[in-house]
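ok so for the tutorial part 2 we go from a plain amino acid sequence to predicted structure tokens. step 1 is just haveing the sequence, like this:
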Amino acid sequence: MDLMLRRKRTILAFVLPALLIYICIVLVPIFNTAYHSAFKWNILGAKKFVGIDNFVNLFTKDKIFQTSMINTFVLMFASLVIQTPLAILLAIALSGTIRGKRYFKTVFFLPNILSSVAVGLLWTFIYNPEFGIINKVLEFLGLGGLTRLWLADKKTVLPSIIVTICWQFVGYHMILYLAAVENIPKEIKEAALIDGVNNWTMIRYITLPLIRHVIRIDTVLMATGSLRFFDLIYVMSNGGPNHASEVIASYMYYKSFRDMQYGYGSAVAMVLLVLCLLITFILNRVFHSDKVEY
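step 2 — the prediction. this is what the tokens look like for a chain of 294 residues:
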């Protein structure tokens, strides 16, 4: 086996199929999108070369795009701030000796295996102003003044979507952290307990530093995933009302396939790609430069 792996032709034979698939479904579409971002094109008519005009218009004239950028970063920040500590706390709690451990794992992880379309439809019913459970509960508690048109109000639509996203994906991140926490050697925890370490000190100085590599990976996954969110937002609000919940991915779809401005939509897609790469680079640098003190 070792001799086989030393042969470059053998390695190439194994790598080549996956590399060709990657080139076809990732690199070719990226270069194709970058090419079309320099044109004004409605897919059906002739292309008109405009250079960087699409990008200039995005950042100087397009107020909806600027709103979608703000919403995208709000969504990413909220996901990181809410899901990361909640997932870590749930993982630590479930790593202990509690009754019904498997049941709670299943309950928290179950929303993640549902499609985002199904989750979006479910929460659309929950937020429904007429028969939705949230307004009904508020009315039952005598808090009818707090009822809202949750997905039709500019002030509440984005927070409502953020709650839905966190509900769906916190279980996924919890499983990642749970695996990392349970992989910590028991001898370290036992030694800390013998020294009289309390739970908070255990978490701060032992658990968190030892799962730091998982936190870095999960943070990158969560941030880039938040930047690319589309399907759940499309189902729940379609970017409305009046683009109040528009994000970059949904705006890309809106310009490309509803306004039939394919070149402009390609420019939006390239901005999204650059943002994903930039955020990944920044987060990796932050975690790389952050020295852990024991």
